[in-house]
Specification:
- The protein has 141 residues and is mainly alpha-helical.
- It is built from five helices and two strands; from the N terminus they run ββααααα.
- Strands 1-2 form a two-stranded antiparallel sheet.
Amino acid sequence: MMTWFLYGVLAKNVNIKNLSIEDSFVPNAHVRSDDMKQLTREEAIALASSGEWKNWTYEKQAYFQLNQKRCCMDFSAFKKAVSEVLHRPVYSHEFVNPKQLLDEMEGKIPTPTLEDIVGQLEKYGKKIIVVTHESEGTDLE
């Protein structure tokens, strides 16, 4: 048996083969990854493999995974869930800072501009090339 904690709500005791989270999930802005039970490597793999997370709302997927240190669901589905909750495209490099995404989800910080998002890449020494139009006679192949 395994016990899942999700935002201060004790979820049902469930067998690893039938993982489940409370249906009455309500995010609690005061609970962060330090307060949430962190999945072990084995538990994260079991949850990912079970596909139970596919039955969760986008909000459940986003809040749960952003508060976990280990990936426990398909990353592309997680990325889509966060994008749906934030009502904007979320770029892969933004997941380096889950606290910022949680703060945005909870309304603690404003939605970043595209300039802010692209600017995050500069912290990591990444160069950005922006193509605004094609030049005639240029063969890029």
